[in-house]
């Protein structure tokens, strides 16, 4: 027993050097690009590859925006699954020699369970009228949380049954690995979709701000970078960090101005049960109506303006852009530390010159959480539409009771006149 305790203590003190090497990702750059850029140095070759693929991804992103909010939701789901796959695969490769039973099957099973729970919650919140028409869906929604918990318990019991005497500790490491990965990917992608339902502008401005900051920080760092920013990312420089900040704030302010002019971007995304389509039509709220603001005295001398017309949302864009520039990069630094811990350059080789999908969205997940917290703290008030949808699910007797209580309350407040008997 003493020898066993000593061995376990030695395992606890293992350093990073004891982590097995993960095979480096292969070069997935298309042959046509390799031949076209063969005469350039490695530095400039990477510049052109990143630039061309960035333009291709941005073009594809604009196409999906044009196709509508439902396609954006599918995009978020696809990115979530791919990011989850990349992180889980790293764990599998690092500990592949142990040949853990059921590890990969259980990892994907837990992903399905958690997605079933979150997307079921979304359906219950935003598609109540649609659910009300179908009895099968009513049963699933009414007992949704119980079904979700039962599915999770099934996976939990399968994990306990898969435990092998020689690999207990490692299997619990992998169990924790799976759950942390679920927390990072599924929970955050659910918040992204919640932001999207508030209006496409709450989805596009934050994501575009992170993309802008990533691109401009890279450009400023590439041409002017001299001072290292953080040891976790040796290529990051203060010049790139500062240049990216100012560029992102300006971009967010201008981009918000153009988006705020269109109902398609500012209206909450709602489901029309009659047409079975998502619609974005509404009377824009005060956030998206032009207002006149007085320019601070210090800036009046510089700009020569006493007042300026702008959308209130543009003020909020400063907060979003600032977070994307100053705090958002720490998501990337966190990912860099993770990759260094496991001796890998990128999460995968999905995108030539960029690495894996997770390499491109490490900052986006942190941004999604901030936007959700920002909306619930400073923007969103009581939602009559959502409350009405919930009332429509109630039984007629319950609806009548709510009506009588509300009417009595309004009469007491003097808002309604008491009815004559």
UniProtKB/TrEMBL annotation:
UniProt-listed GO biological process terms: CDP-diacylglycerol biosynthetic process
Superkingdom, taxonomy of origin: Eukaryota
Pfam families listed in its UniProt record: CTP_transf_1
Catalytic activity: 1,2-di-(9Z,12Z-octadecadienoyl)-sn-glycero-3-phosphate + CTP + H(+) = 1,2-di-(9Z,12Z-octadecadienoyl)-sn-glycero-3-cytidine-5'-diphosphate + diphosphate; 1-octadecanoyl-2-(5Z,8Z,11Z,14Z-eicosatetraenoyl)-sn-glycero-3-phosphate + CTP + H(+) = 1-octadecanoyl-2-(5Z,8Z,11Z,14Z-eicosatetraenoyl)-sn-glycero-3-cytidine-5'-diphosphate + diphosphate; 1-octadecanoyl-2-(4Z,7Z,10Z,13Z,16Z,19Z-docosahexaenoyl)-sn-glycero-3-phosphate + CTP + H(+) = 1-octadecanoyl-2-(4Z,7Z,10Z,13Z,16Z,19Z-docosahexaenoyl)-sn-glycero-3-cytidine-5'-diphosphate + diphosphate; 1-octadecanoyl-2-(9Z-octadecenoyl)-sn-glycero-3-phosphate + CTP + H(+) = 1-octadecanoyl-2-(9Z-octadecenoyl)-sn-glycero-3-cytidine-5'-diphosphate + diphosphate
Pathway(s) per entry: Phospholipid metabolism; CDP-diacylglycerol biosynthesis; CDP-diacylglycerol from sn-glycerol 3-phosphate: step 3/3; Lipid metabolism
Membrane topology, record value: Multi-pass membrane protein
EC number, as in UniProt: 2.7.7.41
GO terms under cellular component: endoplasmic reticulum membrane
InterPro entries in alphabetical order: PC_trans, PC_Trfase_euk
UniProtKB keywords: Lipid biosynthesis, Lipid metabolism, Membrane, Nucleotidyltransferase, Phospholipid biosynthesis, Phospholipid metabolism, Transferase, Transmembrane, Transmembrane helix
PANTHER family: PHOSPHATIDATE CYTIDYLYLTRANSFERASE, PHOSPHATIDATE CYTIDYLYLTRANSFERASE 1
Similarity comment: family membership: Belongs to the CDS family.
Name of the protein described by the UniProt record: Phosphatidate cytidylyltransferase
